[in-house]
Structures are given as structure tokens and as C-alpha cells.
């Protein structure tokens, strides 16, 4: 008896390891109808919004916007929850699938939107009050809100990558202007290292930050039109060789792989590195650094061009409504309010996030913001990405390859071959 | 009760007839099961709630996990209705396909090898260091209780907190460890950036976190060994090594066998250390079986069936380990 019992307990204890896996399929009650009441200001109730901005540098601006919204709609309360951007996707999927704990409104990254929509988590917005004056939105961000031709979100902010640099350090190294090609980038970085002793370029080991190098040589990850996997192309091999050369030549120090992003940012902020690739979302944080107490010291330039062009990925965020929300009318009004030109202008003015509405750029507040003015032409280098549900799976294989490349464990050819193999596992019927 | 006799009135005769049929007519001797049930009914009643709760909390998810592992269920094809969106359920039973896929992939064997190395290295160091510290603390030294408190500290800190602190210590550009190396005139080391070093780094953290438990457990074992044995051995002229070898180790055997088994299972499934310090990186070199199963289950479109299959495989591995371990202990005359 005792022996049998202990065997049972062992198995039971071990079973705990497995029991965590397994998806529930909690159904939710049918949502209230989409029809807006006669007077929107009469809508009442509480809604939850998951925001993904940095709570210290960007959060207060959005909380102030919520105050404005609540003043306009006195019967609606908005619960603001800040979820780190690297966890929001996962947490939303868990909550939406389980049918409990999901927010009414989520700030969804452009690449997540089609995935959420394909899984049935998002409320279709065509013809609702959430999408107002659709033609005013910039085409790039707007395309990311569509899945199978239907709108599932509203563009909130857009962004792309640029070269952020420390003007003082470049000047000390004898360069008045930012480098415009990758060859110049290498040269400037080496000069900075030689003349000032600090690092020229801090690389962030992340797949997204590889894209400017690929686009620059005319490469890409996929050709969605023809259902082709194009990651293992001569253009991309050349791009990866360029990246590897930046590290081996000493233009960039061997980058940290763990906490890569944070380390590169700290290096720029503390004047330990002169240049990094980053987007407008990073500006509020960069200005907190001791090197940029004088904002004039920060230079922002388009990403250096490869042999073909200067190209950086289109990024940004959308606002989407959870299909299982108990208060869709209030959520709809909230999304509508957050994406008006006035709201977007306010955000752009305070924390330099780029509006997705063309008309917002005519707002004097936005025109008065130097960073937005600088970024507007850089957006012309923004290269559209395919908005497909599998988009989120492209980054992990590329990241593992990038890590091995800067660690000197693989060659550009080998790296892309491996990535290509892994992509073929994701897109089984592509050529 | 047999009250559904079709009559409108339930008379006493119906009731007694019902009761009789429940007791079994004809006066046959009750079977062994029934005898046990009538004699030990209170015992069954006592364990019933526990059995019920265990079945609900563990048995049901376990059964569902096993079932899912035999299908091709993913987040995309498990049916559900969310508000206005209705997604039909289209997942199918595929038998052992997931298992075959996992066991024929080089990835699984690679991860299994590293998981075994990680488990053996961690448990050996846990136990060795724990035993050493326990022996030191078992003697009369000044400030003994202060030492004990300090040594228990790593265990008292929540796992994720220590994991984050270690991650900062290891940071290649701004970490304390590299700052010390620089100050000593040595070059910085990418602790978490090189596959081999990252493996060493995570093992070091896990050892740091796991030693206190072993130490406390072994200390308890040491204090239960009667002092007379040592005195008698000393009278017989045994060397310190012989005393350790022939009194201490046999005396600790029960405690050791238990904590080593527990430690093995915990370490095998030590999710937070790996996930929070390296995230499985660089590449996926520090990914152990459980963290990989998690990655399968929680990235992009979630693959429930495949991750459930990983989970079942991990469970089977541990069950086999536990059974073999207990067998070998029984051979040595241990009572479990």
C-alpha cells in the first residue's frame, strides 16, 4: 500500500509539469450590438486599455489624453494598464483565448494586428464609429490594420528606424554630417573610436534592426506576392557580411546579446557610443540621458544606404478592440477619440511619436516639434512589410542567426541558409 | 433508491423494498471489496475529498494534455466564439504524429543532452556544496546561527528576483562582474553572449539558489545521527575520514536519497532561471526541455498540440527516472 501510494504521489507531482499545457476554449457571451446610441456622450461604463509605451517617459502623455476623454464622456471610466511591449502580445493572446482578463482596447503592434485578427480576437471595425475619415490615414500604417481586406484596428502612431547620433562626438572625430552609406558609417565609426576613444556604433542584436541592412542591398525576407521565401539571397548575404564586418573591423564593439537594446541605449545616453539605430519611440528616453540634456546634441538621420537604397522597416502601433469586450460602444468611442488629428498632434508634440493621419502634420503643434519634422522625411525610407499572420514567427530564426553571426559562430552564407530552412518549416507550401 | 415504481404514492413498503434491494437480497456473503468498504468506510470517506481535488486539479488537465498531444490543435484551429467572431473547430486526431516529429528531430536530442548535463551538474554541485556547508555548520563554531541565516538567504529571495539581479551582474557592458575584471586589468567577458559561457553562467546561478535547501536538509539529517556512534568510533581509533565514510554517509542516506530525487526533478524543470537570465539564448543554446516546450506553446500562433507532446515526453522521462531511482534504492535496502 505504502509503495503504491508513493508511486502515485511521484506521478502526481510530476504531472504538475504537464498540466500547465493545454488550451481552454472558454466561449464568451455574444457582444452587444454595434449600433451606436443616439447620443455618444450618454454611453456609460468602464473599459480597460492596455498601453505598451514606456511608463516613465511616454505614459504620462497618454494618461493625460485619457483625462481629456473622460472629461468629454463623463459616464465612461478608462482603466489604464501599462503592459511592457515585449509581453503584451503574449498576455493578450492568453487572455483573449481564455475569454477572461482581456482588455477592451489593446495597443497592438502593426505586425501583431493581422495575427490577432486571423485568430478572431479583434472586433471588425468597418462601418463603425471607430474609423473616421479613413482616407486621411497614411497608406503604410493603414494597410497594417487590414486583414482579408477588412479593418480590425485604427492606426495610432507610425515609425521607422533612423540613425541617432551624438553630434559632439562626431564633430570631435572630424565629421560634421551623419554618414549616408554603410561604407561611410564604418569610416565615421572608426574615426570616432580613434579620435575620441569611445565606440563609434553600438549595434542592437535584434532581427528588426537587421532589416535596414537587408533593404539597403535590395533584399527582403519574403516575396508574399509570389509566395517565395527570399531570405537566402545574394543581396542578403552581402548585407550580413556588411554587419559582420562592422563588428570585426572594430567600427562597432562586439555587441551584448543579452539586454542588447538596453545596453546600446545606455551607451548612447552616457556618451559611450556615438551612433545607434533606433526609432522615434526611443527619443523620449534618449533625452533623459546625460549627453542630451541639450537636445541639440542629438542628431537624427535616415539609416545609411546600402548599395541599392536607404530602407528601414515600417513600424508603429494600432488601436484595436477585443471582440469579446463587454462594452464595445464605449471602446469604439475611445478608439475614435484617441485617433483624432488633435489627439495625435498632442502625442506628437509631447513625446515625438509620429501621427498616422496626414492632416495631423498640418497642426502647428506638430510642425513645432523638431523631431517630428526631422522624422517626416525619414518616413519616406520606410519600407512596407508584409502584414501576414505568420509575420511574428519570422523574427526568432533571424534573431538566432544574428546572435551566432556577431558571436563569430557562423558565416553570412551559413546563417541565411539556416534561417531559410526554418522559414520553410513555417511556410510549408511556399517555394 | 428504487422509488420510480410508477405508483403515485410512495409507501413505506416501497421504501423498505428499495433498501433491501440495495443491501442485496438472498443473504449471500458480501464480497471482499464490500467487506473492506464496510469496515474501512471512514478511511475512504477521509481520502475522498483529496482524491477528488487531485483528480480535478491534476488528473483532468493531465488527461486533456495527453489528448491534445494526439491532435493537431493550435490556437488557430481550436474553435471558439468571441463576440461577433465565430471560429469553427477544425483540429483533428493525428495519433502519434507529434511524438514522431519531436523524437526524430535533432533538436530534441540536443535539448535533452543539455538538460541532462544541466541537471547532473546542478544536482551534483547542490548536494556536494550543501553537504560540505552542513558539515561545517554542524560543528561548534562562533556565530553559527548568523552563518546559517546568511546561507539560507539565497533560498529566501524569490527566484525571479535573484534571476534578474544575476542578469545585471552578468551584463557584458555594464555588469558588476565585468567591471571587477576591468578593474583587475583583464578584458570583459560576454557571460551570457557565448553559448558555453552562458551555460556555465546559468548553472552557477542555479547552484547559488539551490545549495541552501540541500544544506538545511542535510543539516537536519546530520543532527539526527546519534553522537554515541562517533564516540564509540573514536574509542575504536577510527580516522575522521572513516567516521565520515562509515557513520555520516550511511546515516544521511535516507535524507540524501529524498533530496537528490527532489532536486533532480526540480532542476530538470527549472524554468525561471533559464527563462529569465538568458531567455534560452544565445541562439537556443541554453534552452532546456521545459523552456523549449514553453516557447512552442507561447510564441506567435500557439501550437498547443506540439507543446503538450513535449510536456508528455518530459513527464515520461521523469517518471522513468523516478522509478529507476527508487528501484536502485530498494536494492540497497532502503524503505520508501
TrEMBL record, chain A:
GO terms for biological process: maltodextrin transmembrane transport; maltose transport. InterPro entries: SBP (IPR006059). Keywords: Signal, Transport. It comes from the Bacteria. GO terms for molecular function: maltose binding. Residues 1-20 form the signal peptide. GO terms for cellular component: ATP-binding cassette (ABC) transporter complex, substrate-binding subunit-containing. Belongs to the bacterial solute-binding protein 1 family. This is Arabinogalactan oligomer/maltooligosaccharide transport system substrate-binding protein.
Automatic annotation (TrEMBL), chain B:
It comes from the Bacteria. The keyword Transmembrane helix applies. Residues 112-325 form the ABC transmembrane type-1 domain. GO terms for biological process: transmembrane transport. Residues 1-14 have a biased composition (Polar residues). It is a multi-pass membrane protein. The chain crosses the membrane at residues 41-63, 116-137, 149-170, 200-222, 255-277, 308-325. It is found in: Cell membrane. Residues 22-32 have a biased composition (Basic and acidic residues). InterPro entries: MetI-like (IPR000515), MetI-like_sf (IPR035906), UgpAE/MalFG_permease (IPR050809). It holds the Pfam family BPD_transp_1. Signal peptide: none annotated. Coiled coil: none annotated. One of its GO terms (cellular component) is plasma membrane. Residues 1-33 are annotated as: Disordered. Keywords: Cell membrane, Membrane, Transmembrane, Transmembrane helix, Transport. Belongs to the binding-protein-dependent transport system permease family. This is Arabinogalactan oligomer/maltooligosaccharide transport system permease protein.
Amino acid at each position: 500500500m505504502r509503495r503504491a501510494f508513493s508511486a502515485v504521489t511521484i506521478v502526481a507531482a510530476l504531472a504538475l509539469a504537464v498540466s500547465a499545457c493545454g488550451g481552454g476554449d472558454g466561449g464568451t457571451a455574444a457582444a452587444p450590438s454595434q449600433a451606436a446610441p443616439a447620443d455618444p456622450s450618454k454611453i456609460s461604463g468602464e473599459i480597460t486599455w492596455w498601453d505598451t509605451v514606456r511608463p516613465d517617459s511616454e505614459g504620462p502623455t497618454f494618461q493625460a489624453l485619457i483625462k481629456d476623454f473622460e472629461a468629454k464622456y463623463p459616464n465612461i471610466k478608462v482603466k489604464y494598464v501599462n503592459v511592457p511591449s515585449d509581453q503584451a502580445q503574449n498576455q493578450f493572446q492568453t487572455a483573449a483565448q481564455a475569454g477572461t482578463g482581456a482588455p477592451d482596447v489593446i495597443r497592438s503592434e502593426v505586425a501583431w494586428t493581422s495575427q490577432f485578427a486571423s485568430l478572431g480576437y479583434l472586433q471588425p471595425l468597418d462601418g463603425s464609429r471607430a474609423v473616421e475619415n479613413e482616407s486621411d490615414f497614411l497608406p503604410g500604417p493603414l494597410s497594417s490594420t487590414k486583414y482579408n481586406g477588412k479593418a480590425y484596428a485604427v492606426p495610432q502612431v507610425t515609425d521607422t528606424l533612423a540613425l541617432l547620433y551624438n553630434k559632439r562626438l562626431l564633430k570631435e572625430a572630424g565629421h560634421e554630417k551623419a554618414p549616408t552609406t554603410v561604407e561611410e558609417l564604418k569610416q565615421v565609426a572608426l574615426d570616432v573610436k580613434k579620435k575620441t576613444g569611445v565606440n563609434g556604433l553600438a549595434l542592437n542584436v535584434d532581427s528588426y534592426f537587421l532589416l535596414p541592412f537587408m533593404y539597403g542591398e535590395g533584399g527582403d525576407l519574403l516575396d508574399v506576392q509570389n509566395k517565395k521565401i527570399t531570405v537566402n539571397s545574394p543581396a542578403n548575404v552581402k548585407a550580413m557580411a556588411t554587419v559582420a564586418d562592422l563588428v570585426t573591423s572594430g567600427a562597432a564593439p562586439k555587441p551584448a546579446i543579452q539586454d542588447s537594446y538596453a545596453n546600446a541605449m545606455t551607451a548612447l545616453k552616457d556618451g559611450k557610443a556615438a551612433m545607434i539605430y533606433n526609432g522615434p519611440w526611443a527619443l523620449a528616453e534618449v533625452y533623459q540621458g546625460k549627453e542630451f540634456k541639450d537636445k541639440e546634441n542629438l542628431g537624427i538621420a535616415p539609416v545609411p544606404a546600402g548599395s541599392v537604397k536607404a530602407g528601414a522597416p515600417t513600424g508603429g502601433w494600432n488601436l484595436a478592440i477585443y471582440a469579446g469586450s463587454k462594452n464595445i460602444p464605449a471602446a469604439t468611442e475611445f478608439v475614435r477619440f484617441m485617433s483624432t488629428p488633435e489627439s495625435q498632434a498632442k502625442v506628437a508634440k509631447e513625446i515625438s511619436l509620429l501621427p498616422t493621419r496626414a492632416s495631423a502634420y498640418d497642426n502647428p503643434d506638430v510642425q513645432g516639434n523638431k523631431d517630428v519634422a526631422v522624422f517626416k522625411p525619414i518616413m519616406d525610407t520606410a519600407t512596407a512589410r508584409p502584414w501576414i499572420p505568420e509575420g511574428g514567427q519570422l523574427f526568432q530564426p533571424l534573431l538566432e542567426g544574428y546572435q551566432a553571426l556577431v558571436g563569430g559562430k557562423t558565416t553570412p552564407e551559413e546563417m541565411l541558409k539556416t534561417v531559410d530552412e526554418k522559414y520553410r518549416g513555417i511556410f510549408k507550401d511556399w517555394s | 433508491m428504487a422509488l420510480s415504481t410508477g405508483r403515485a404514492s410512495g409507501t413505506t413498503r416501497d421504501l423498505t423494498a428499495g433498501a433491501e434491494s440495495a443491501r442485496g437480497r438472498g443473504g449471500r456473503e458480501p464480497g471482499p471489496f464490500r467487506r473492506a468498504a464496510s469496515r474501512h468506510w471512514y478511511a475512504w470517506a477521509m481520502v475522498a475529498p483529496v482524491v477528488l481535488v487531485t483528480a480535478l486539479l491534476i488528473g483532468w488537465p493531465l488527461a486533456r494534455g495527453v489528448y491534445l498531444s494526439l491532435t493537431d490543435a493550435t490556437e488557430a484551429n481550436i474553435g471558439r466564439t468571441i463576440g461577433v467572431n465565430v471560429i469553427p473547430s477544425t483540429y483533428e486526431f493525428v495519433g502519434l504524429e507529434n511524438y514522431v516529429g519531436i523524437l526524430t528531430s535533432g533538436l530534441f536530442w540536443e535539448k535533452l543532452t543539455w538538460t541532462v548535463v544541466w541537471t547532473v551538474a546542478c544536482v551534483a554541485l547542490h548536494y556536494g556544496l550543501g553537504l560540505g556547508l552542513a558539515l561545517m555548520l554542524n560543528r561548534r563554531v562562533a556565530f553559527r546561527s548568523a552563518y546559517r541565516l546568511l546561507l539560507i538567504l539565497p533560498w529566501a529571495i524569490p527566484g525571479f528576483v535573484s534571476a534578474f539581479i544575476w542578469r545585471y551582474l552578468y551584463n557584458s557592458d555594464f555588469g558588476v562582474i565585468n567591471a571587477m575584471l576591468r578593474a583587475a586589468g583583464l578584458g570583459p567577458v560576454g557571460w551570457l553572449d557565448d553559448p558555453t559561457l552562458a551555460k556555465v553562467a546559468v548553472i552557477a546561478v542555479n547552484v547559488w539558489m539551490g545549495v541552501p535547501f540541500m544544506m538545511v536538509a542535510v543539516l537536519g539529517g546530520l543532527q539526527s545521527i546519534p553522537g554515541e556512534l562517533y564516540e564509540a568510533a573514536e574509542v575504536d581509533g577510527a580516522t575522521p575520514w572513516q567516521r565520515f565514510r562509515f557513520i555520516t554517509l550511511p546515516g544521511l542516506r535516507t535524507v540524501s536519497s529524498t533530496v537528490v530525487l527532489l532536486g533532480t526533478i526540480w532542476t530538470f524543470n527549472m524554468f525561471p532561471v533559464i527563462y529569465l537570465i538568458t531567455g534560452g539564448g544565445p541562439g537556443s543554446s541554453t534552452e532546456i526541455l521545459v523552456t523549449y516546450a514553453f516557447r512552442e506553446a507561447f510564441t506567435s500562433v500557439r501550437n498547443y498540440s506540439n507543446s503538450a507532446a513535449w510536456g508528455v515526453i518530459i513527464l515520461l522521462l521523469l517518471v522513468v527516472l523516478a522509478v529507476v531511482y527508487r528501484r536502485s534504492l530498494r536494492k540497497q535496502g532502503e524503505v520508501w
